Amino acid sequence: MTDRILRACGRLEGMRILEVGPGQGALTQALLASDAVDVTVVEKDRRCIPVLEALGQAHPGRLHIREGDALKTDLASLAPPPRMIVSNLPYNIGTALLVLWLKQLAADAACYRSLVLMFQKEVAERIAAKPDTKAYGRLSVPAGWLCEVELLFDVPPGCFSPPPKVTSSVIRLTPRPQPLYPASWDALERLLAAAFGQRRKMLRSALRSLMPAPEMWLTNTGIDPTRRAETLSIEEFCLLANILPI
Q: What is the DSSP letter of 62?
């Protein structure tokens, strides 16, 4: 399975790899065996550090270990470009990390060449979801706005020790040269939080926390106020974000 993830990364020659939550280093070992220049890992669990250090000794100068919280670490600062992220992300912080990296891409589309990430299957499906589907939501819009998103393959529980109770999935996000449509990250984030925070409500009700009269605002942009958030395209969300009252 680690070889399959490695193939999903594409050509790694000259690339610097960033990995979060390497654990016992199964994926790390595969990455070190590739043509990548080096691998930088961020691991919070101190018990894993000795195993990673042993891997580093087997690959002198190519493994850099950073002990700490990935949510408090600017990964891009740990390695010069060209860089990419390849990780089996910890379930409890996976979505928070993705949002952090997407925000970086909104500011600099060339920050990462690509991101090959493993999530719980349900989360991966939400990231790759299209409009008018049940999974489409707060993760789908910014991911599709900034990246080409590909849902690649599932990883069964038996691939892990101990096995989790859920299936995982690997996705690949390839940053676009520029976002699909002009918009402010902060405005889009506010809009999505309101729209999908009450996703079963019509937009005229869900967006009331952002403005006193959303019906008129929506109508003036050509969007039916009785629609629900999951029916809006990325373009429509960006259009609304651009005229969102401060």
A: T
